Structure formats: C-alpha cells, structure tokens
User: What shape does this take?
Amino acid sequence: FYLYPELSNDLVSTHPPGAHSLVAVSVGYFLEDFVDMLCNQKLHQSWELLFHHSVVIICFGIAVLLHQYVGFALVALLVEINSIFLHLRQILLMANLVHTTCYRLNSLINLGTYVVFRMATLAWMTRWLFLNRHNVPPAAYAVGTVGMAIMTPMNIILFYRLLRSDFFKCRRDVRRQKEE
Assistant: This one.
C-alpha cells in the first residue's frame, strides 16, 4: 500500500508487478499442501484445514484466472504471516518443547500476529467487500462473501483453541499444582 497507493482505491483490477505470480504460486502451495494432507493425515485430523485450503484455492484461483481481485488476494496473504508462528508452535509441540522459554515467547508472538494478521485482516477484508459491493459483480461478491463467512468463524474458533491450549491451560495447571 505504501509503494502502490492505487491499491487502496482498487483491489479489483490494480496490482503491483509480480503480485499475480505471487498469488499463482500461493495457489500451487495450497494445492500441494492439500494433497499432502490427503495422503499423509487422517481426515478427522485435517478436515478443517482441507476445507480452509479449498476455499483459498477457489478464491485465489479466480483471481489468477481472471487477473482480477489480485489486490484483494494480496491482502488475504497477510494472514499467512501468522502461519510462520503457528507452524513453529506445531514444531515445538512435536519436539516436546512446550515448557520452554522459546515456546512461551512463540505463543505470545503467535497470539499477537494472530490478532493483527488474521483477525484484523479478515475484518478489514469483510468491511472492504461490504463497502465495495457495488463495484464487485454479483458472482464474485457471492464467492467473496461466502469465503469470508467461512474463514472468519474458522479463525475465531482457532483463536479460542490457541488461547485455551497455550494460556488458559497454564492457569489450570498452576491451580492444580497449588491444590496438590
């Protein structure tokens, strides 16, 4: 937005050089991750992520194929900044490093980036879509609205799970230890 201020006015047909390629590569990543989860995880463990990836593949795929809404997809990619810390959290869990300073620090950064890059970005995108509904064709508006209606509750639920797992659980453990 700083380098390409015209994006602020037009997320539909304006995008900086390389943005289309970035969104196309992102579609490839989501497709690869989708197939990897199908092949290597049990459906009951990954259905939410598979559903999430399906929505992203459809929405980003439309942007890539039509060369439209690439700016909107760029904004959506801000959400993936938080994925760095979500994945690091998973790696630390798998390495059994839950009770370390690194895990605690990552939990705090994860929560902060979650609020900024997931919650705030999704709220901004929903607001933008609503305010610009007259500039977006009905089919694209429907896809965007359905996409946001799916992603927002999924991210709220995941946020609650993170809070419960990384923060509320700690308080329960401390209470239990005091009782013992």
The longest helix spans residues 138-179.
